[in-house]
Each structure stands twice: as C-alpha cells, then as structure tokens.
Design a protein that fits this description.
Layout: H1 2-7, H2 13-18, E1 27-30, H3 37-45, E2 51-55, E3 71-74, H4 81-87, E4 93-99, H5 104-108, H6 134-140, H7 143-152, H8 159-170, H9 178-185, H10 194-210, H11 212-226, E5 227-237, H12 240-252, E6 271-273, H13 283-288, E7 296-302
Parallel strand pairs: 1-2, 1-4, 2-3, 4-5
Antiparallel strand pairs: 5-7, 6-7
Length: 307
C-alpha cells in the first residue's frame, strides 16, 4: 500500500465500496483509479470470476497498477467509458465508482501547477500529452470568457475583477507560473478568505482545462445505460457543481434534473437513492485527510422498472 499512500489517500474508502454492494462474480468499473486505493478494495471483495476495469488518463497512475488477472487498466478519460466497455465486449456492469475532483498526488506535485503552494508552470492538465494548458487559457481567453470560468466553475463573486486584472497584467508580460497568477490577483481576495478564494480560482481553471463538467456528464449518462438492474452507482463529489450533476442523474436520470413522469404521475427515473442523505467523512478522517472535508458520497441503485 506504500505507493498508494504516497500517491493519493482514498476518501470514504469503506463507505464508497460498501455502497457498491459487490457481487463476487460481478463486473465493476472504477473511473478514477489514481493511487488505486478504491480499486484494490474492490478487488479484495471480488471472487475469481469477477473483473474490475479502472480508468485514469494520468501516466503517473500507471505505477500503481496491481498485478491481478481480474484487473484491466484503461489509460483514458472516463468520458469515453461507453466506447471502452464496447471495446472490451462488456454490455452491462454491476457497479461503478467515481472519486471526483483532483487527487492529493496532483496537489502535492510541485511541477504540475495544480496548487498555488508551489511556484510552477501553469499547466493543470490531467493528461500531459495533449490539450490546452492553464497558461494558454489565462493568456489567450478574452475577459468575458475568463470571467465566466471563474464565476461558473469557481463561484467567485469577484470573477469580473479577477478577469480584468489578468487581462491588464498580461499586456505587460505573459502569466506563465502559478505565482505569476497569484501576484496579479491576490489583492482582489479578502484577507480572511484569501486561501479559499485562491483555491477556487485554481479549481475553476483546472475544470476548464480538463473539461471536467462535460466529461462528468458523458460518463454518468453512459453509466446509467451500462449499469444493470440492481447494480450500484457510488460517487464522491467535492464541490457543488459536480454534486449537483450527480444528484440530478440519480434523481431524474438526466444531468439537468428534469423530472419525467409517467401517465399516472409517477417519477420516471432509472435510479433509486440508497442513502437518504449524503454520506460525509467522520471527524477522524477529516483530521487525517484535509482533502476529505468537502467530500460527499451519493449512492444509487438501478431499478428494474420505473417507479
């Protein structure tokens, strides 16, 4: 377990895997492999005929792959879940687990630009082999686009002022590092909320760089089709944007939360909630793993018929 602890400390490990109600011979998917903590726990509960497919687009995650014939690693963004399951000939799965957000590995890596704690290149790509970097967005997006990113994905009230400060500063010289970005924006944060607002600014850029909301929507809709009746969906979220999407899918079967009703006025949804309210980490876990403090776990079961 050494590599997994160094790479990433899994959040709500027992609760999220318990939520899958694992069948020993079932087929499961962990769409956020990371350090492999959740995947290894799933494998411990699978029998010899069970199988686990785990997704991660970060090359660093591959060092944590377990040597287990019941395990298949998929080096890809989880938005392509449907295509990869078709590639492996899997028509239905018994459950899917997702631990969303950014891993502790990414936040602690001084070279990737995910955290304002380190002065590093503004990259923030989960997959370093392609895509647009945070620096490219900061230096090329127009002021309105930047304001939208910080408001929608960071929920920052000062989004417009942040965008204006960035556009003004980059005319003098490009903003290329995390500390460059902080230097031109930190005066806009209230002292008592400085770290929280900076974290939200970085979160917003990370979501934009990695197209996280679009990827999440595509994955959840694919999971809705793939999970067999009685199968489970277990998802850990860390901010209101992704939590709202997960809640909508589990409640209504679509990402907008639009309730569909049958002829008799009954809610037509593919899922029923397993936990009446969200599960959060206990005080001990929150103290040991600060990343877990904003975590929420939602679990739903695929229904046989509409209710």
């Amino acid at each position: 377990m050494t590599n997994e602890i160094v790479y990433h400390v899994p959040v709500l490990l027992k609760e999220s895997v318990d939520g899958l109600a694992i069948r020993p011979d079932g087929i499961y998917v962990d769409v956020t492999f990371g350090g492999g903590g959740h995947s290894k726990e799933i494998l411990q509960r699978l029998g010899k005929n069970g199988h686990l497919y785990s997704f991660d687009q970060d090359a660093d995650a591959e060092r944590n792959i377990p040597g287990d014939e019941r395990f298949t690693f998929v080096r890809s963004n989880f938005r392509y879940l449907r295509n990869w399951m078709r590639y492996y000939g899997v028509e239905q799965i018994d459950g899917l687990l997702a631990d969303l957000g950014v891993s502790s590995h990414h936040l602690d890596d001084e070279t990737r630009g995910f955290s304002f704690r380190f002065d590093a290149a503004l990259d923030m790509r989960m997959n370093t082999k392609g895509g647009t970097t945070a620096a490219e967005i900061v230096n090329k997006a127009d002021e309105q686009k930047l304001a939208d990113i910080f408001y929608l994905y960071g929920e920052l009230k000062s989004a417009r002022r942040i965008a204006a400060a960035i556009v003004k500063a980059r005319t003098a010289k490009p903003i290329v590092t995390t500390h460059d970005l902080l230097h031109v924006t930190e005066h806009l944060f209230q002292r008592e909320h400085e770290k929280k607002d900076a974290a939200r600014m970085f979160q917003a850029l990370r979501i934009e760089v990695n197209h996280e909301m679009d990827a999440l929507k595509e994955m959840l809709l694919a999971a809705t089709d793939l999970i067999k009746p009685g199968g489970r969906l277990s998802v850990i979220t860390y901010h209101s944007l992704e939590d709202r999407i997960v809640k909508n899918v589990m409640k209504a079967g679509n990402t907008e939360g639009k309730i569909q009703q049958d002829f008799y006025g009954r809610i037509d949804t593919p899922f029923k909630a397993v936990n009446g309210k969200v599960i959060v980490p206990n005080n001990e876990e929150q103290q040991e793993n600060p990343r877990s403090r904003s975590a929420k776990l939602r679990i739903a079961e695929k229904v046989l018929h509409t209710t």
